[in-house]
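Thread title: Can someone regenerate the structure for this chain?

I was given the following input by a collaborator and told the matching structure tokens would be attached. They weren't. Posting the sequence so someone can regenerate them.
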Amino acid sequence: MSQQCDTPFGLFQLKRIPDNDKNLQAWNSADLYILNQVNEWFQEGRIDLKNSRILILNDAFGTLSVAMSQFQCDSLSDSFISHDSAKININNNCPDNSANVTFIKSTDALTEKYDLVLFKEFKSQSFLKDQMQKLAPALNTDTLILGGIMAKNLQKNTIELISKIIGPTKASLTWKKARLLFVSTEIETLKNADGIPEKTIANIVSNTVSTYQLDESQELIYNFANVFSKNKLDIGTRFFLQHFPTENLISDYQHQNIIDLGCGNGILALRAAHKYPYATITCVDESYMAIASAKMTLEANLKLDKRKILYQAANALINHEAQSADLILCNPPFHQQYVIGDAIAWQMFKDSKRVLKKGGVLWIVGNRHLGYHLKLKKIFGNHKVIATNNKFVIIKAVKT
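Best answer:
Regenerated them for you:
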């Protein structure tokens, strides 16, 4: 369902993905605050948007990308859903501008120098740090940098982090519960071999990967900056591993196609690869960094394994063929950015039913209070609680 968004750059009909909650919209007042400030700079002649290279970071559902699509801009995100939302909203509102916007994955390098940078702050501080480190070499001394964030989400260490990596950062007054972050660049000026000044920031490293070992197997798990629980095994996954599905081990060929849905760093896919040595494993996540992490994890720990392993950044299983999977493993998220809700889980469960073969099984782990058993009962017509503790529950549902 599209909703009307009035900005200084046009009136747009914007859609949020998933769009099954009519109380949620594709933008917030931080988006509008950013666009109002950019328009003010434009009217004052401080920035020539028509002749500027613009970078947008963390554009949740495409509001900034749609508004700026009449100019030349790049949109960098770790979210496949965010990129997909932006593309849909651009095509629905200004399809002739679609060629003006280049979409960049969070794992890719920035190769341009930018005149204007607009960013929405992301929940993960480690990801924000990674982005600022990636951004630094792409700045000029006169680059205008503007962030937007809901006031309740602004942390002191966010301002400190940006100030340390990029330059002095100040927060605006609150407008409709949002604040702006004005960032000044402090760039070391060097000269190249021809004596021409170059702007650069020394000792900046982005796309930092961290690792930890699984207790029992001592296998190394790889994690990019925006991966959930990147420094240690989260307790939900630990509980899942203790009750991992083994019901078809008598027949190695029973589960030929296995999907790790919302794969994160690939731990469940790695366990499935060990338990089902003849199965094709597919890792699916909407985070580009999660997919990169899972690929590193599986390749490092399955060096001699010649099986087919696939990696796909996607919006749940929308693009997967019906009746194509035997087993789906899922640790669903219960929030989308700062919004807590079950929209993502609902889509994962509905997609799983469509994609599973008859007799195929979905296994999930989740917090007990989320009531996933009710959702599975409604979608699949059945469910079975495999294990439970004081915080988590493991449930399976069979496609009949």
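Confidence is low (pLDDT under 50) at residues 196-206.
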